[in-house]
């Protein structure tokens, strides 16, 4: 799933390649992906891209060429969605429901440059909204503070008194926006904290370590990602991970094998040597440390 660093890089890529270009045509290949009807998606035709922005893990393409009628094409890429830039595209409209394409935006001219929103797999969760204000998107309206904008004191206040496990809290977008499964694993590993540690019971030193890890992991990932081509971002993300999706491989810090906790539809990874005092976590929801 694209998280804060990848969405920030995609927004920068659009600012570099799409700004000042008019929309020539919009092809909708998946009607289920489009979650809004007013304004209609075809109202983008003739509008000029003026910017791109990130809201948590949401990506927004901005059309403010008519200040009295701004539009924002907002997408949440979910688990298997992606934005693909193209320098040229087929002029034939795509067949709905065929292949991974959900929406295509032609810029300058039909068949010219532009971008596709795609989604692999059978679970179609990619969501597209055309709105006058990004706050009209429910997921954006409910976002907590951005993970790279929150201060250390604000972060401490956010944790105070909370009973959630750290892993649960870090990925809850209404609490803290932008972090998903992969980077939460990396942040907790860098901070040397158990995914099952209770958020409201951290010491001041642990809060310092967690906040520093949050800043360093996300900032480093953004710096590596911004400026890369959209097609290269997934590989860059995988290359920068130390524990996530590395089950069974040696931890690059202590050498112990990375372990996994699996749930019904997802899993997370951690290092027992770095994070849980050498003790493995039981592989079930809301588990305590195995003794």
Describe this structure in words.
Keywords: DNA damage, DNA repair, DNA-binding, Glycosidase, Hydrolase, Lyase, Metal-binding, Multifunctional enzyme, Zinc, Zinc-finger. Belongs to the FPG family. It comes from Pseudonocardia thermophila. InterPro entries: FPG_cat, FPG_N, H2TH_FPG, Ribosomal_uS13-like_H2TH, Znf_DNA_glyclase/AP_lyase, Znf_FPG/IleRS. It catalyses: Hydrolysis of DNA containing ring-opened 7-methylguanine residues, releasing 2,6-diamino-4-hydroxy-5-(N-methyl)formamidopyrimidine. The chain has 291 residues and is α+β, with helices and mostly antiparallel strands. It has two domains: 138 residues, MutM-like, N-terminal (N-terminal domain of MutM-like DNA repair proteins, Alpha-Beta Barrel); 124 residues, Helicase, Ruva Protein, domain 3. It is 26% helix and 19% strand. It has eight helices and ten strands. The strands form three sheets. The protein has a four-stranded antiparallel sheet with strand order 1-6-7-5, with no helix packed on it. Strands 2-3-4-8 form a four-stranded antiparallel sheet, covered by helices on one side. The chain has a two-stranded antiparallel ribbon with strand order 9-10. α1 runs parallel beside α6 and α5 crosses α6.
């Amino acid at each position: 799933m694209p998280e804060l660093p990848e969405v920030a890089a995609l927004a920068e890529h659009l600012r570099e390649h799409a700004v000042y270009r008019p929309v020539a045509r919009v092809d909708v290949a998946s009607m289920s992906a489009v979650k809004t009807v007013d304004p209609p998606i075809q109202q983008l035709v003739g509008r000029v891209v003026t910017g791109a922005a990130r809201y948590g893990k949401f990506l927004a393409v901005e059309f403010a060429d008519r200040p009295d009628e701004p539009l924002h094409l907002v997408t949440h890429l979910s688990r298997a969605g992606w934005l693909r830039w193209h320098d040229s595209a087929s002029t034939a409209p795509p067949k709905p429901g065929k292949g991974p394409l959900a929406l295509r935006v032609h810029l300058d001219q039909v068949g010219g440059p532009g971008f596709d929103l795609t989604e692999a797999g059978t679970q179609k969760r990619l969501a597209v909204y055309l709105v006058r204000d990004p706050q009209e998107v429910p997921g954006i309206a409910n976002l907590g503070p951005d993970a790279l904008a929150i201060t250390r004191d604000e972060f401490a206040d956010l944790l105070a008194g909370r009973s959630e496990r750290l892993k649960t809290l870090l990925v809850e977008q209404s609490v803290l926006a932008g972090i998903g499964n992969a980077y939460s694993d990396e942040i907790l590993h860098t901070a040397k904290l158990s995914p099952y540690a209770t958020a409201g019971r951290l010491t001041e030193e642990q809060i310092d370590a967690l906040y520093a890890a949050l800043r360093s992991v996300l900032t480093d990932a953004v710096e590596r990602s911004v400026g890369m081509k959209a097609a290269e971002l997934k590989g860059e993300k995988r290359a920068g991970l130390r524990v996530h999706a590395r089950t069974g491989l040696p931890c690059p810090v202590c050498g112990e094998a990375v372990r996994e906790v699996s749930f019904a539809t997802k899993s997370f990874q951690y290092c027992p040597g770095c994070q849980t005092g050498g003790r493995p976590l039981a592989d079930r929801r809301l588990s305590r440390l195995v003794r």
